[in-house]
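Predict the 3D structure for this chain.
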Amino acid sequence: MNSDENNQISRWDFTRVFLRSSLEQGSWNYERMHNLGFEYILVPVIERLYPNKADRIAAMSRHLAFFNTTPVMQSLITGVTMNMETEVAAGRLPADHVNQVKTALMGPLASFGDPLLWAVLRPMIAAIAIELSLSSSPVWGPIFFFVAWNGLRLTFRYISQSVGYKRGLNILEIVQSSLIKNVVKASSVFGMFLMGALIARFVSLNAVRGLSSVSIINHLNFSPVSILSAVIAICLMSISMWLLRHRVNAVWIMLGITAVCVMLAMIKVI
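Done. Predicted structure below.
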């Protein structure tokens, strides 16, 4: 099963793997999640390293196992897997180590990628895009979001694939260190802070209109109405998040909010 010296991963093979990386979820399935997409990504490497058909079949079969992690973080595992497949093809690493290492990386990288990407980076870019749409032309917001998100996503994919390929099994030391846990914790805290800022900036609710007619309110240095509106908005968002986490359909949540707002408007509360 030893590979020929000429059968090493080339720069073009590396680039082909990178170009395929965004298609990981194109064949997503409930049984083994991203396994077919991950195998598709590695096809250029497997074809390069294993000129023998039987070895190629064995390598392909190896990657039919269950695979699931944050899609953007997949590129780091891809790089590590490319390194391991090179070692397997050269006879320096047992083949069963490949899936063992992939399994060891999936969970920690998902716990790192989900809060960092979905709770911090993507909402931050979306907030800037919304602000651009509101303050200038509505066209600039979507353009900015598309360019910024995909630019950062693809840059991270390329760098992480390179690092994974160069470091190989040494990546396990970083993943199993306290660094990942600290980043996840910081990302979660910042994500909650960002959510509060977004609620205050973009969620508007004029609550309890009758308060503005009370004479004592006009002599205060702050507006209880605006504070109450902000509190109600935060409560409304928190209830919506709680319902989403309990798998209540988002459409039903929106319909419920609409119905409540209509009823409150009819009795002149908002």
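The CA atoms of residues 88 and 94 lie 6 Å apart.
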